[in-house]
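To close the section, here is one more complete example, presented without commentary so you can practise reading it yourself. The ligand is NAP.
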Amino acid sequence: MKAIRVHKFGGPEVLQLDDVADPKAGPGQVLVEIKAAGVNPVDTYVRSGNYAILPQLPYVPGADGAGVVKAVGDGVTRLRPGERVWVARQAGYASLVAAEAAMVHPLPAALSFGQGAAVGVPYGTAYRGLHHKGHGQPGETLLVHGASGGVGIAAVQLGVAHGMTVIGTGGTERGRKLVAEQGAHHVLDHTSADYTKRLMEITGNRGADVILEMLANVNLQKDIDLVARFGRIVVIGNRGTIEINPRGTMGKDASIHGLSLWNATPAEVASIMAALSAGLANGTLKPVVGREFPLAQAAAAHQAVLEPGAYGKIVLLP
Ligand code: NAP
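Output:
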């Protein structure tokens, strides 16, 4: 099979297209012919070697994908060869993958393979942020601080489906239009000088009950100012340091939660998979693919995923 492999950590140029042996479906596994693979920002951090947990070299980057079941291993009865599926955690930038059956789910006919490849990390993270960490409740206000990218679009759709008032931010007009199209009730520009003032006006000076934060090193102090009494700030993305005044959390009994998708317990992972499967099947969750690259152009995709002006997901096509 064809696979992108990293033989040494470094810049995008270390992403190399290799011919490697086909994997086989072991007991409890499903062999999937990957038609689209999701590109997540974390793939670039790992590739550069600057990440807390690094794989052994050489490795195949990526986690999310979608395709067609080619074979099932012993004990797998839930899925059949020929079925369209999305794969969480155990796919990658390769044309074939053998994944644990629990991470492989039917892909509804209305969704493309690209959309299926946009589910795992972005929707899993947004779900964990909104429900497991933020404990968002219907009727509450949700600020998706950075709503135009993979996690943000997922969070907007999840918040709307959950009956929350959703405020999303984007840095470009195109991105903000996309956020509005996903059902956000209010859309703000995180590059404008007065958008935090606008948020307080929109919420009648209450602030947001849950804040899902995509760039905490820029926004954490703003979030402390914007969060409502008893509110929850969830740090999803962060690319540096910031000075904050913790006093702002005290008067409001506000809390700040860190989140790593990889810390989800098996029970939490199972609940995420069940919720996302239901949302994809009933049409409330519709991943948005902004750009597609051929597998061989993984390096260009890694550059694109770090550029400003996010528009949903970037996927690779093996
Ligand atoms: P993405 O698709 O590249 O989107 C990045 C988002 O951040 C865009 O909406 C972008 O908006 C926004 N942004 C840029 N500048 C901002 C600012 N000043 N204030 C608020 N938002 C701003 O990335 P993603 O896949 O959605 O991931 C988002 C972040 O979460 C990344 O840092 C990623 O590494 C992290 N993440 C963490 C976990 C975890 O387990 N903790 C899991 C998944 C992702 P514009 O481009 O429109 O300006």
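Once you have examined the tokens, check your reading against these statements. The chain has a mean pLDDT of 98. The chain has ten helices and 15 strands.
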